């Protein structure tokens, strides 16, 4: 990571985790992914790298992120539009997340039951190397709280009459 001293051992350990060729572009992408705290799109990571002066194509970013996922360096989820979002995985263990459909906030969730279920299906179905995808989405508490404070027209709830329902709020928003 630029500006942060890393011993040769730390650098070689990080480099050893990079799948395929250990190019400057792959190192830069891994660093950008590691600095992100939420899930990020390939395009936003590509833009971050370009702003830092790293010359890398968008297709290379997509291919490298897929390799990072395969190697256990990144987790991937899909947003409500189907776009893949990526997040650095600091440990080798598989992780599931609850993703806010409104703001994109993500929180890791305990998934022992899901993992046990997937393993039980594999054990009883005569399949090997079973993989699974579990997408958990919802509306986080902050977004839910914000939605309750405003009506559909974006007005504070305090400006609505006490007996105005959602339909009346929509009708008044058209005026």
From TrEMBL:
**Which Pfam family name is an example for this entry?**
FUR
What keywords were assigned to this record? Cytoplasm, DNA-binding, Metal-binding, Repressor, Transcription, Transcription regulation, Zinc
Residues of the region (Disordered) are 1-23, 152-175
Q: Which regions are flagged for Basic and acidic residues bias?
A: 8-18
Repressor listed as a keyword: yes
Q: Where in the cell is it found?
A: Cytoplasm
Fetch the SUPFAM superfamilies from UniProt.
Winged helix' DNA-binding domain (SSF46785)
Keyword Flavoprotein present in the record's keywords: the answer is no
Quaternary structure and partners: Homodimer.
Tell me its family: Belongs to the Fur family.
Q: What is this protein called?
A: Fur family transcriptional regulator
**What organism does this protein naturally occur in?**
Streptomyces polygonati
């Amino acid at each position: 990571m630029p500006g942060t001293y890393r011993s040769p051992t730390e650098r070689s350990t990080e480099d050893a985790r990079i799948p395929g060729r250990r190019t400057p572009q792959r190192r830069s992408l891994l660093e950008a992914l590691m600095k992100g705290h939420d899930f990020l799109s390939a395009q936003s990571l590509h833009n971050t790298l370009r702003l830092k002066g790293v010359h890398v194509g968008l297709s290379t970013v997509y291919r490298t992120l897929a390799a990072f996922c395969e190697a256990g360096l990144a987790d991937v989820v899909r947003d409500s539009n189907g776009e893949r979002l990526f997040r650095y995985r600091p440990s080798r263990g598989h992780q599931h997340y609850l993703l806010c459909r409104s703001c994109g906030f993500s929180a890791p969730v305990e998934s022992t039951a899901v993992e046990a279920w997937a393993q039980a299906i594999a054990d009883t179905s005569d399949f090997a190397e079973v993989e699974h995808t579990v997408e958990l989405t919802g509306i986080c508490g902050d977004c839910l709280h914000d939605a309750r404070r405003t009506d559909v027209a974006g007005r504070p709830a305090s400006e609505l009459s006490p007996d105005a329902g959602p339909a009346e709020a929509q009708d008044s928003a058209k005026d």
